[in-house]
Amino acid sequence: MQAPTTGNRIIAAINRDPLTAPHALRNDSVLAVVVGVLAVALALFVDDGRRPDALGWALLLVSHVPLVWRRRRPVLVLLAVVACVFPYHFLGYAHTAGTQAAYVALYTVAVTGRALRTVLVGIGVITLSVGVMLTFSAHETLGLQKASGWVVAVLFLGVDVRFYRRYVTSIVERAERAERTREEEARRRVAEERLRIARDLHDLLAHTITLIGVQTSVAAHVLSADPERLDRETVAKALDDIAETCRSARGELRTTLEVLREHGPPEARGPLPGLDGLPDLAQAARLAGARVEQAVRIRQAPPAVGAAAYRIVQEALTNAVRHAGPDVSVRVELEERQGALHLSVSDDGTGPAPGGTPGFGLVGMRERARSVNGTLDAGPRPGGGFEVAAVLPLTTTGKRTG
């Protein structure tokens, strides 16, 4: 990692809150020494008053000691500095040398306090400065202007730096908040993607395994019913149906699992299953022994809605083949009413056995419906059988569902 440059360190020191800066006591001790050395040099080489004697040097040097604690108690430090500087100026010592510590303390009050406190302190310091100057010489108009100007300039500098630091702090907070929001959004998307893949795998595997199980039972029944009069054509067809179901499932499984290997956006996925795939679902259910009737009175739907409808019908047909009993009749209806896709899958079978272990099928169907802001109801029909009914808005802005 590259070491910070001098310029970066200066900018960091300016941007840093003085009340929370590290090594504050050590840095302020160094500052007090530096300002004290500067004041001594000004007292020796600038002729704007008499050179300090022992009392003057004592007042001048002691006035810099409170600067060590300027960040902790800025107002008290300013009062302590003024208490030493006032008699120093009143006795006529070199005036420029005695103002450096006062300016530092005044700047600290302005940069760490509120605007009202800064204004009140500024008025008090200016009043005191004017009083000292008038006491020293009633004709020092230029000196009065200089003293007042320097006080106002230091106050404005402190206030400006304080507002600048608050502005930088707000920018940093917004950046951190945006970063947290991005991380939360990324975690949310990961969770949604995992749930989507889990639903896809459940729908695909449950549907495929159920069909293979039924088709295998057909082949086994043909083989065991009358071995001497073996219906080879029926057995071959059942085995072909199993092979076709496996090929179809393998292709869809590959499409689903490719998402785990992609690094691009979700829009880079393959085409979503939709309403045009419903005839294939009905045909697969027929091959498993169900009598399926379709009444599809809608041609197009948004991709997310079409995918959700496809998965709901797939799961409903799988449940009908698995639980409704032999020779079940299933009716699939889809139509558009009042800007929504109304979907119904009903059968006349016996339904799932009471007291059985509930699976994830109904949960997955409800999640499919909610993903496009729709609703789904499922339960026994009054006249016998089972029905799944869903309402999916066609103007949904729901997320893409695989």
Distance between the termini: 44 Å
How does the overall form come out from the CA principal axes?
rod-shaped
Order of helices and strands: HHHHHHHHHEHEEHEE
Chain-averaged pLDDT: 77
Number of helices: 11
Q: How many beta-strand runs? A: 5
Helix content: 55-70%
Question: What Rg is obtained from the alpha carbons, in whole angstroms?
Answer: 42 Å
Low-confidence stretches: 398-402
Structural class: alpha+beta
The proportion of residues in beta strands is 5-15%
Main sheet: which strands, in order across? 1-2-3-5-4
Largest sheet: 5 strands, mixed
What's the short version?
This protein has helices at 6-15, 24-45, 54-62, 74-90, 95-112, 115-136, 141-225, 232-257, 278-287, 303-323, 361-371; strands at 291-297, 329-337, 340-347, 375-380, 386-393. The protein is of the alpha+beta class and 402 residues long. A five-stranded mixed sheet has the order 1-2-3-5-4, with helices on one face.
Report on this structure:
Residues 398-402 have low confidence and may be disordered. With 402 residues, the chain is of the alpha+beta class. The chain has helices at residues 6-15, 24-45, 54-62, 74-90, 95-112, 115-136, 141-225, 232-257, 278-287, 303-323, 361-371, and strands at 291-297, 329-337, 340-347, 375-380, 386-393. The chain has a five-stranded mixed beta sheet, covered by helices on one side.
Q: What is the topology?
A:
Layout: H1 6-15, H2 24-45, H3 54-62, H4 74-90, H5 95-112, H6 115-136, H7 141-225, H8 232-257, H9 278-287, E1 291-297, H10 303-323, E2 329-337, E3 340-347, H11 361-371, E4 375-380, E5 386-393
Parallel strand pairs: 1-2
Antiparallel strand pairs: 2-3, 3-5, 4-5
